[in-house]
Amino acid sequence: MMPSLLARHNQILHQAIEGHNGYIFQVVGDSFAAAFHSASDALNAAVDAQRELHNEAWTPAPIKVRMGIHTGAAQLQIDSNDNAYSGYATIALTQRIMSAGYGGQLLISGATRELVRDVLPENTELLDVGEKRLKDLLRPEHLYQLNIVELPSTFPPLKTLDAFLNNLPTQLTTFIGRENEITEVKQELESHRLVTLTGSGGTGKTRLSLQVAAELLDHFDHGVWFVELAPLADPELIPQTILSTIGVQEQQGRTPLEVLKEYLHEKQTLIVLDNCEHLVSASAEVANTLLNAAPKLKILASSREALGVKGEMSYPVPSLSLPDIKHLPVFEQLSRYEAVRLFIDRALLVAPHFVVDKDNAPHIAQICHRLDGIPLAIELAVARIKMLSVEQISKRLDDRFRLLTGGARTALPRQQTLRALIDWSYDILSENERLLLRRLSVFAGGWTLEAAEEVCSGDNIEIYDVLDLLTQLVNKSLVVVMEHSQGRETRYRMLETIRQYAREKLLEAGSSEIIRDKHLAYFVKLVEQAEPELYRSNQVFWFNKLDDELDNLRMAMEWALVANVESGLQIASIPWRFWNAHGYPGDLGEWFKQLLERYITTDILHARALAVYSIWHFQRGNFPETIRLAGQSLQMARRLSDRQTEAFSLNFLGAFNMLQGNVGEGMSLLEESLAIYRTLGDKIGQADTLRFLTVVNRGHPEYLADFIKEAIRLYRELDDLSGITICLMSLARLTMWQGDFSAPAPMLDEAIMTSRQLGSQASEVEALLAYGTLAYWRGDYEGAMAFYEEAIGMSEKIGDRFQNLWGRVHKAYVVLRQGDIQKARALFKDNIKTISEASLIIPLVYAIEGLASLHVNQNQPERAAQLFAWADAMREKIGDPRPPVEQASIEKDLAAVHSKLDDAEFTRLTAEGRTMTMEQAIALALEE
Asked: How large is the average pLDDT for residues 190-202?
């Protein structure tokens, strides 16, 4: 800011603040910090300042100031060097509120709003902007914007954690210290594309990386993604794990690394790779490959050693600052040291009435010193505050951890120090606490109390003992209670280092196989329990529950390959509705492959598993394999004379045939399935089959309406929101095809809302495509393009190639109607190539019709006549007549074609087109 402008800016702020009894206690550059006697004074000062700043005749450019107001406890602290306020929480929150806004914006906290809501300055009003996650805060803060008449009141979304693409976990405890490290790491990331935080286990590398990532959210337009590698044992899974974290699905025939390279190529992204040490070579290879492929990508890694990649900046994470044990300051000043501050903060969480005094302060300092300022070690020590005094903890550390201070042993790697700490923590547990800790290590990604009771009870631990023992492990910081949203179960997890330690103890005890068998049996029982709930009123809960247990399902299938293939196949195939709604994980196909190779029994489970495996292939665009597997499933079901499984297989095989363009055969198979389900009285089977009959049966409105109505009736009887949602979309499409463009919107609004409630991205993609089609037929091409782009992006992430292809064809139509002929031609040709390779007839016909329409626009009637004629013949052959709205559009094009050709020529070209093979039509369409 120019000196003259800065001076005037400062003058306005001084006058406004001091005019309302404010006290300016800090000025840094153009930033002011002030305290007031009341919230009203602060608000009036801010309003006056904003008005003066807005009305000032600034040149060469206006100065806009963002302001934040919060009310909290603070005390004036006067010393010889500075006049300032103590009360870090209040001051920090005020600063965070201000930082979330933009120039000219005035934000206040919920606490301040309660004090001023009835005494607002004249010509102002409060706008509720909702609860927002602010940096460093444990809970969201409710914020309000003060709008001032005649001043700007519209601003971009607040710069809070929720406003940026990220998956950074909410922190349940405050972040202590590390100000210098945060600044330095951020500076290193400005200069280097790969920064690796190195240090021993427990030094706080993960927490530091999360804090740095949170502060850099607004620097990366395409997201900040935290990728936890600790659960991985197979280095080949690193690219797949990154894909899953970002939300991008794998693609058939391409490695996860290839997909990742393409996805990140032009994206400005920060990836935080956590806990690389056990996969250091593979992490280095992946990091190097991605950095070379994506010039805007940056990686912040944490590892016990540097990755060894060219251009890497290795940043050793120091321990927390410590007092000199030989020259301790007075106890009031001990909290200046980060390690002591951490100890006190965590002690107050464990024992709210904990007090630091001159007697226990030296022992706190000694504990921190003996533990080398390692955050995890300090937190584990603090966990004993309920059972032991600080002095007792200090003495135990002296006795148990002589390795930390005695002779050359202090040079041992920090991993050994951490292990010694865990040994100590483990040794002071009761025998049953140790036993439970060992058994809990079998879980991956956390567990529920119910799971712990079923898997870990027995042999000295009764079911009713598990809760008390688990509570003790939580109290002693060996188990963490995971934050959960409303409607979801409380879950627990171990820090990964603790889990690995406990697993070693489980193996040493010789009971690993027994516990893994129980773990496998529990998750078989869980998916069996979930299956009927996935199409009933409680389906949202069960979709979320299975989503929470994904890592455990994988762990169970891994053990099943060794111990019980049948159980593994049950886990892979029973919850198919969950996989279908949430997107089939890429690794599920590999589990199916390995389990089916080992499962030689011909039974109902085998037949159903083949059918579900066929859906996985369909999602990934491997349509020939889809048909083959579904056909095998049907043959096996018929050999077994199992009508239920026969109907199940017929359902999928019929749907796949219809979706690929074999409408007649598909309808026949689906009708056969429906007849069996009706004989069996299976309502959900009937509803699913009717739903499939509505998906692509576009040209038979007389059937569609009946199918939809009956399916909705059955789904409503079952309270199946997912089924109702899909039927609503079918009904919306039917009304659009009939030329009604007003009725579908409410149906689609309900469908997309329910899809999001269910977490069903597959349904959401379908709804977005339907929204796009509605906007297209309304002539809102800009709106249609936005919907199609969103659908294409989401379908790419979940790996739904079928919907992705449809979205791309629709996009080409929009570009054509917008008048960009060259781009439309390129899009149609790309689509035709891709769709023909996938052997999908219906979208191929639709794409060629679009290219024919383009030729009409380009005054090429001959080629248009031939392509339209071929499309007519093909639709007749496959039994897919055009919906009325599409037919009306094409008739307009044909009238234009006919007007430019004499009758004989038109008849000749039409005849030629109708006799062309598919290959000839594709060649003609792609011809320049």
From this structure: 86
Q: 234-243 b/e with 16+ CB inside 10 Å = b?
A: ebebbbbbbb
Task: Tell me: pLDDT of 9 over 60.
Answer: yes
Two tokens, residue 40 = 């009203």
CA 333 to chain centre: 43
CA-nearest of 680, 745, 750 to 722 is 750
Residue 539 lies in a domain: yes
Could you read off the pLDDT of 653-667 as tens digits, one per residue?
A: 998 888 777 888 888
Q: How far apart are CA 121 and CA 149, in angstroms?
A: 11
Average pLDDT, the chain: 86
Whether omega before 575 lies within 30 degrees of 0, making that bond cis, reads no
Q: Find the helix or strand (DSSP H, E) in which 493 lies.
A: strand 491-493
Do 568 and 692 belong together in one domain?
yes
* Domain match, 802 and 825 both: no
Q: How many CA atoms, within 13 angstroms, populate the side-chain half-sphere of residue 33? A: 18
Q: Which of 583, 581, 556, 562 is nearest to 572 (CA)?
A: 556
- pLDDT (mean) for 581-587: 75
Among 316, 349, 369, the domain boundary falls at 316
**Tokens standing for 179?**
């100000």
pLDDT surpassing 50 at residue 115: yes
Phi and psi at 67, nearest 5°, equal -135, 145
56 shares a domain with 134: yes
Residue 76 is part of a domain; what is its CATH number?
3.30.70.1230
Dist. CA 394–CA 289, nearest whole Å: 48
Question: Which range in 3-7, 352-356, 806-810 is most confidently predicted, on average pLDDT?
Answer: 806-810
DSSP helix/strand/coil, 273: strand
Each residue's pLDDT tens digit, 155-179: 888 877 766 788 888 766 777 888 8
Report the number of distinct structural domains present in the chain: 7
DSSP 104: T
Residues 831, 834, 839, 840, CA torsion sign: negative
pLDDT category at 702 given cuts 50, 70, 90 is: low
CA atoms within 13 A on the CB side of 863: 22
Last residue of a domain, one of 281, 316, 351: 316
C-alpha separations of 559 from 18, 447, 587 in Å: 71, 17, 15
Tell me, yes or no, if the pTM score tops 0.90.
Answer: no
> What DSSP assignment string belongs to 537-558?
TTHHHHHHHHHHTHHHHHHHHH
Q: How many helices (H) and strands (E) does the chain have?
A: 41, 15
C-alpha span between 50 and 108 (Å, rounded):
14
Same domain membership, residue 438 and residue 391:
no
Q: Are both 657 and 696 inside the same structural domain?
A: yes
By CB neighbour count within 10 A (0-12 exposed, 13-18 middle, 19+ buried), where does 233 fall? exposed
Residue 408: which domain range? 331-426
Within a domain: 354: yes
In a domain, 53, yes or no: yes
pLDDT score for 700:
60
824 and 744 fall within a common domain: no
Residue 508, number of CB atoms within 10 A of its CB:
10
Residue 127 phi/psi, 5-degree rounding, is -110, 120
- The per-residue pLDDT for 79 is 45
What token pair was written down for 27? 């000025």
How far is 296 from 167, CA to CA, in rounded Å?
A: 19
For the CA atoms of 363, 369, 373, 374, the dihedral, rounded to the nearest 10 degrees, stands at -90
Position 562, amino acid:
V
Task: Give the whole-angstrom CA distance, residue 57 versus residue 55.
Answer: 6
A 10 A CB-CB count for 595 gives 23
Are 680 and 584 within one domain?
yes
Provide the 3-class DSSP secondary structure of residue 71: coil
- The pLDDT of 798-804, averaged and rounded, is 85
* Nearest CA among 481, 523, 478, 475 for reference residue 505: 478
In a shared domain, residues 379 and 460: no
162 in a structural domain = no
pLDDT value at residue 609 = 95
